[in-house]
Amino acid sequence: MKQRNTARLLTGRIYVGLVLFFLYAPILVMALMSFNASEFYAFPLSFTLGWYAKLANNAEIVSSAWRSLWIAIATTIIAASLGTAASLALFRYEFPGKRILQALLFPPIAIPWLIVGTAMLIFFFWVGIGRGTPAVILGHVALALPYVIVVVSARLQTFDRQLEEAARSLGASQWEVTRYVTLPWIASGVVAGALFAFAVSFDQFVVSYFLAEPGDATLPVIIYTAIRKGFTPEINAISTIIIVISMAVMLGASRFFKFGGER
Amino acid sequence: MAEVQVNGLTLDYGTSRALDGVSLVFPNGQLFGLLGPSGSGKTTLLRCIAGFVFPDAGTVMIGGEPVERVPVEKREIGMMFQSYALFPNMSVADNIGFGLKVRRVEAGDLKRRVSEALDLVQLAGLGGRKPHELSGGQRQRVALARAIVTRPRVLLLDEPLSALDKALRVEMQVELKRIQREVGITTIFVTHDQEEALTLSDQIGILRNGRLVQSGPPRELYHCPLDRFTASFLGDANFFSGTPEGPGLRLADGTLLPWPRGAAEPGTPVIAVRPEEMTVSARQQTADPGRCLIHGELRNVIFSGPTAVCVVAHGDQLCKILVKNSELGGIPAAGPVSVSWPAERSMLINQ
Amino acid sequence: MAQLARHDGARAGLLLAPAYLWLTVAVFLPLSAMLFFSFLSAAPFTSSDWHVTFANYTEFFRRSIYADLLGRSLMLAAIVTLLCVLIGYPCAYILARQVKGRAREALFLLIILPFWSNSLVRIFSWAIVLRGNGMIDHTLEAVLPFDVSVNLMFSFTAVVIGLVHSYLPYVILTSYLALQAIDESIIEAARSLGAPFRVILLRLVLPLSLPGLAAGAVLIFVPVAGSFMEPRILGGKHGTLYGTLIEDQFVAVFNWPLGAALSFILLGVVLVILALASPVLRKAR
To answer: d(Cα A224, Cα A238) in Å, to the nearest integer?
Structure first.
């Protein structure tokens, strides 16, 4: 029996290892190639930082990278504030229609982003918002909100309601209760939600694709058009950078939020 | 410091009625205990007085002002929660000073009052600790200090001692009473433990199914319960039912239990007697004057430390009699016995 | 709470309003606008001559290409979902029940991490790997004795590989959450009653974790059905799907009303599938 168990455990680990290999192999290849001097991915490999240098000189990519960053920061601040406020309301109060409100958070995640993106395009054009950075931010915040609310609400579940009652019994107004008692406790959830929002915005492609001004695109959109036109190895470089940033952000978020549940 | 009065309080949670027309006066400066089984509405009543819930009907007056629609943060109350609810991210001193801080008390004054409060609950010097560094008893004192430092008009305690172990509980009962006397604040507390209610309260109110059953000083409730529920909830009681017949109550087996002297032909169908008022002895035929007498079979003697409980079968009911250890010698080991008690100690029960 | 005091209601509203207002403007109104659009003959802001019509919807039935592509997209979604479930569920199971402690958290994090990086970039990385003269060729040449040229790029297979890679973490995540929530003592009770591993798996673990598995499947099926970026990059000519068709209406052909109608048809199909799956999903609450 023990033999069967260890054999099973071993197969298990090998399987997980294979899955991990599948998930990371292409990324590693790409990262590898970004340091490879050969333009056509020919072997043997020769190390170079040339592509990264060329990247720094590519004005289009650099400016869109900054734009993506600013948009992501704006999205983070807005989504984190709005999302935390909404989570607090859902946690504190009972009212008719609460279930419906909670259900309404899902469409942005459940509907294919293609449909959401094109719908936004139609509506914004019609209403006069048109394309461009404001439209992109509008879209990104809407996509990030559900994530923030889910994360902050999860953290609120561990909050003892009686602490709020105690503060109220001592004469604190609702705002004072939030500021001195509730927010300190949920701070880690808010930070995690903010990091999620950043990741959602920074990595967002579909919605940005439809809403971005042709001259003023975000980074993923620029990469897309570049790929459609043909490979340039700078794309490798910028892609590697993007992946490293996203993973770093999520690693940071994992210190504040247990992805695997609070076990 | 103020008198609290509730009148006709009614509150429904969906289809169930948590409070049904409760009216009570909580006298100024007294320790009032709300006692009852779970679901009796005592906690709901407390939270109504606090202001966490608004009643569907009725009034709550604090110091003569109606406050039933005033939110809790404006009622000037102090409340101690069952789980203490200390703010985990703040130190003991900050916890205690929180109520003063939101009242914009000036910093020097705040510090002084916090340290006075710490002295009052005998936790001087622990102001810098965090709640998780304290023991259960210490946390409770912090919760108490935090509730009274703002000099509220009313102090509300929700099952204040239930989280403590036995030895600590007795110690805290004394402490609580001392502090309340010293500060002189009107205090209302909720408990399901009748012993706690008896020891702490100046007055007790018993609730059941959302209704007030009886209220009054502990001794009065203990010695003169009005109904069966109160008699058996507050302390122990043996019940004898029969038909009123002239000078006494006629039981099914023919025994006549004389009414307490001076009672004018009350005519109630039930008599209750506390176990400690009864004595067990060898069979005797007639009662001594002024005493009630019944016959039964001694089933069991249960030793419980300073006293022993004798279980005597009378007809198809079992009676409990509390006997001091020193008196055990005069009681036969088993078999037919007599149980007697002074007629004065019979309690007349309505139902 | 016997009664929500009036000022509490106002406060709740104040806290909720900004977020939901934003969602209304950014999501719900646009969707309604798109619905309205799908019944127009032309976009109101491009030409002044427009009227309400069903033409966009009947167009779907008039030319078979639309239905064909929708079918192709749905099939792609089904294949990808199936593959993800078959690969991902065992992985989640092993993680949840066989790995313990630090290793488990670390592995889980490793698996989830790519999920949070840019999907476009991940697809691009596959483009590099799969192309002719690329890594696969070199590796195979190194291993096998004869010359092999494998060019998987610009094929349906490539699209499938790329999509599976992108969406695999979804099903692993949701299945993992469901699996690790299963009370260990239930399994132990079954073992003490003599149940063999296979029975425990099929009769206990699988049914109990089904809501999580179903949630993951839905989270994969729905986006894949509308995907266009992955098919374009990895599929080339073979990557024409319903999603790319819709994309064309908006960025190439500029027939927005038709694009809107096609989108809504897709949305309808998606909602039907969600409705069918919801009994299973509701248990996940």
So the answer is: 12
Q: Which residues of chain A have pLDDT under 50?
A: 1, 262-263
Rounded distance, CA B169 to CA B173, Å?
6
CATH number, domain containing residue B54: 3.40.50.300
pLDDT at C62 over 70: yes
> Which pLDDT belongs to residue C209?
85
Nearest CB partner across the interface for B71, out of C2, C3, C5 = C5
How many CA atoms lie within 13 Å of A44's alpha carbon, on the beta-carbon side?
A: 1
Q: Is pLDDT of B267 > 70?
A: no
The boundaries of the domain holding residue A164 are 52-257
Q: What is the pLDDT of residue B351?
A: 65
Cβ proximity of C31 and A118 under 8 Å: no
- Domain membership of residue A19 (yes or no) is no
| Domain hosting residue B271, numbered range | 236-349
Q: How far apart are the C-alpha atoms of B261 and B40, rounded to whole Å?
A: 36
Token pair for B308: 């022993």
Asked which of B207, B232, B257 is the last residue of a domain, the reply is B232
User: How many CB atoms are closer than 10 A to CB C197?
Assistant: 13
Look at chain B and report how many structural domains it folds into: 2
Q: What is the mean pLDDT of chain B?
A: 88
- Closest in C12, C180, C263 to A263, CB measured: C180
| Element (DSSP H or E) covering residue B272 | strand B270-273
More confident residue, C105 or B264: C105
Distance from CA of A104 to the nearest CA of B (A): 27
Nearest residue of B to residue A165, measured between CA atoms: B52
Helix C256-282 vs helix C29-37: crossing angle, to nearest 10: 130
Q: Which residues lie below 8 Å from residue B181, measured CB to CB, with a gap of 6+?
A: none
Confidence bin at C285 (pLDDT 50/70/90): very low
